[in-house]
Amino acid sequence: MSAIPAIRRSVVLRRRPGGMPSRDDFELVEDAMPTPARGEVLTRTIWLSIDPYMRGRMSDRRSYAAPVAVGGVMTGVTVGEVLASGDAEFQPGDIVLGPRGWQTHIVSPAAELTRIDRPPAQRLPSLGAYLGVLGMPGVTAYTGMRDIGEPKPGETVVISAAAGAVGSVAGQLAKRAGARVVGIAGGAEKCLYVQEMLGFDDCVDYRVLDLDDALAAACPDGIDVYFENVGGAVQAAAFALLNPFARVPMCGLVAQYNESEPPPGPNLAFVVAKRVKIQGFLVFDKPERAAEWRELATPWVLDGSLRHREDVVDGLEEAPDALAGLLAGRNFGKMLVRVDAEPA
Ligand SMILES: NC(=O)c1ccc[n+]([C@@H]2O[C@H](COP(=O)([O-])OP(=O)(O)OC[C@H]3O[C@@H](n4cnc5c(N)ncnc54)[C@H](OP(=O)(O)O)[C@@H]3O)[C@@H](O)[C@H]2O)c1
Question: Is the C-beta atom of 140 inside 6 A of ligand 1?
């Protein structure tokens, strides 16, 4: 079991960014190591998840979740090792999912933690999988496909941000359902990965090709399910190809998270004419999906049939650049910060 140091480090929000966040919007601070009160647990952070929603928390625009206060610790889900516990459920040495914060050490209410130190966790190459394929992004893909997309054999399913944490799982789920799956991703390397490693039938590089023409060519029978992760020009190209009774799980609009003004609205007349179902969702709408997904997907991850890829940077101080890179598409796979080593 790891020793408890005297100080901890945290990344706080120094100011609200105008567009793309930069290092200057954050500050690394130190304080004395806190002690968990009754019902609380102190963990050392091993993995910190970096996710697009964090850009929203840096802004004070109206949203479904409260922003991080200026001077407050950045929010983010982690995998950590329990160092001290004020709750009988958790013992030092336990590995848990759930402590929140860009911090080397976190005190959390025990009720917010999930133990992940029992089999089959030990057989995974990295516990970081609990923040990606088996964690929130995986649950997001599962919820969107299961509850809204509902792909059927022979249908055409298009996934934007296809090489990313959510998109890669959403597309593999559609393949499992027997659909023809087309990805949209930035760059030849990502498109190759989407086809060769993830098994999508096709992938369109929106950065170099004329997207409208390329997507139309890749979807000769139109689109039955469009899993929306991006928005903007990518959305316009996909919406133009939607078939009657198409379904659109509205998962995210990462292309506009750094914009101060929302883009002009699309002409949605086709939604009526084609009876399209467009439905937004948030990963926590159905809390039961998280355990359901872990149960379903863990054997697939262990037998290698559900492919995943992590993009890892080392050190808490690298978290700001990791977030900026994610928002610019420089990540290749689930973006993670390794804050400290996994237990031997
Ligand atoms: N509804 C929910 O509850 C929920 C939960 C989790 C995530 N989400 C959403 O799901 C989406 C994917 O999240 P993730 O965690 O899986 O991230 P990710 O796909 O691993 O990383 C973000 C990717 O977005 C793409 N991107 C960034 N800017 C873009 C732009 N201007 N145009 C087109 N593509 C752009 C980049 O891929 P390319 O290099 O391929 O462009 C980048 O790698 C995000 O919109 C996120 O907000 C929603």
Answer: yes
